[in-house]
Structure formats: C-alpha cells, structure tokens
Amino acid sequence: MKKVEINTLALNEIRWEDKGNFLSEDFRVIYSGRNKTGLRSVALILRDDWRNKGMFAIQTCSALNYRVRGDLAGSRTQK
What we know:
Elements: E1 8-12, E2 18-24, E3 27-33, E4 42-47, H1 54-77
Antiparallel strand pairs: 1-4, 2-3, 3-4
C-alpha cells in the first residue's frame, strides 16, 4: 500500500474469525468475520493518518453490507 500510495483497501472473504481492529506499521486494520470459511467476512485497511476519516468508510461499508445481504436473501427465495 505504501509503494503504490493507497490510503484505503477493502478486502472480502477474509478467513479471520470474530471482529476487531489493530495497528500494523502505519496502517489500521478493521475486520469482521463470521467463521473460517470466509463467507461474508470483510476487512478495511486504512493508512493510520486516515483513521479519523475511516468512520465514513465504515458507515459506507455497513450500508453496502446491508445491501449485499438483502440481495443475497432475495436471490435465495427466487427460482
């Protein structure tokens, strides 16, 4: 991320259980996972000086997560 100057990175299908956050070098990692299968598990990596701006990113991802879950639920009921 440093080399290509990326400030934020979103990951999906991560295989980390539980939820939490930690600091790694100059980056804040925020993650939420259900189980080791990785289904519906996500993470955000934010440059540490962007952590205050991260609340906007988290709210945006929460809205997207809600929408994806709704779309998935609808696709299961349709034939």
